[in-house]
Automatic annotation (TrEMBL):
InterPro entries: Cro/C1-type_HTH, Lambda_DNA-bd_dom_sf
Cross-referenced SUPFAM superfamilies: lambda repressor-like DNA-binding domains (SSF47413)
Ranges for domain HTH cro/C1-type: 23-77
CDD domains (UniProt xref): HTH_XRE
Name the UniProt record assigns to this protein: Transcriptional regulator with XRE-family HTH domain
Amino acid sequence: MPSKPPTTTDTCTTQLQALGAQIRSQRKALRMNATVTAEAAGLSRVTLHRIEKGEPSVTMGAWCSAMAALGMALQARSGTDTAAQATDRTGWIPARVALADYPQLRALAWQVHGTDTLTPMEALDIYERNARHLDLQAMSADEQALLQALRLALSRKPGAEDAV
């Protein structure tokens, strides 16, 4: 029996959960605990926790306050803008590099246990230590852009960005 198509509520819930995960990731990247972040945003720690879980019952003002406390901004986009903006990641480095999004990195990081994400510096170290095992032809354009951005921003050796 085919599954039913996603409803608007399902889509909104998924988007709020993704936004909550981004907020939590930013908080972790800034090394701020939940209590300090909640106080900076003028919220209770419980409300911040609900935001990070993506609960739709939290007011929009609370979401905006939490994001502002973390140096983030909320923007509304039309559905057609999303595809165009998602593909242009030139020079973009995420606060945490998700192994699931970068197959070559995931293969190189086989020894990493207990986490699904790496700091940008950890990701660059793994790429550089295992450069001989990289398959550049099989690497997606997004992963190549990430590697180039990491090298340009974080490389410690002069000329290292030209190596691959």
